[in-house]
Fold:
Amino acid sequence: MVGKMILPLVGGAPAAWNSCLFFFQLLMLAGYSYAHFSLKRLGMARQAALHLLLMLVALALLPISFDRATKVPEDPSFWLILELFKRAGMPFFILATLSPLLQAWFSRSSHTRATDPYFLFAASNLGSFAALLVLPM
Structure:
């Protein structure tokens, strides 16, 4: 949706789509890496406190918007990635961390199904599919 918001500024050229794809894949990898290494290095209590702080920072950066009067360079690829980092980077990074962190936190809980938290993957996929169905085109 963020890509759809910025594309009118840069046009629908393949370079614009590729830059958006690169940005979101990079942040997804960064979010997964953060989830893994922060739990490993900080432990669950300190990691949860850090994550709450990061979530509040990301919340303060919402809503995501782009100025329509912005001058766009002729080759917008690098500019587009920088704009996406500035406007949507932190919120998307936090969003990318939620699924692996919730599953890791759940697996460390005392719930009876905590030893096999993989049913959460199915719930996540079902939620994503439902969101795609209701997404306005």
